[in-house]
Amino acid sequence: MTEIAAVGQLEDRRQPTTTLEGWRRFVDADPPEFTLLADDEWASLGEDERTAYNEARVAHHSELVVVTTSAIEAITHQGRLLAIMGRFQRIAHPCTVSRR
Fold first, then answer.
1. Which of 31, 56, 77, 94 could be cross-linked to 7 through a Cys-Cys bond (beta carbons 3.0 to 4.6 Å apart)?
2. CB neighbours (10 Å) of residue 67?
3. Which helix (H) or strand (E) covers residue 71, if one does?
4. pTM assigned to the model
5. Whole-angstrom Cα distance, residue 43 to residue 59?
6. CA-CA distance, 56 to 53, in Å (whole number)?
7. Number of independent structural domains in the chain
8. Phi, psi angles (nearest 5°) of residue 77
9. Is the pLDDT of residue 6 over 70?
């Protein structure tokens, strides 16, 4: 049986790297490791083990860091503007258009 390492999801989260303390912790920390299971290993997990494995995988990927650059700031700003401007727009979405 494959043993899955426990990953604390909320209590072990990093400080945001946008703060000096968070950046220092990020730089000083060892890189996180997560080993994907082979298909047959994953298939042999029980329901509880599979849930724990999937939660550990999601926790690992949610800790990825995006470094803020001028390009990321511009993209984020434009995305927010588009979301605000389009909040009350009604559009025809292919899934909602009825065919007659």
1. 56
2. 9
3. helix 70-85
4. 0.43
5. 21
6. 5
7. 1
8. -60, -50
9. no
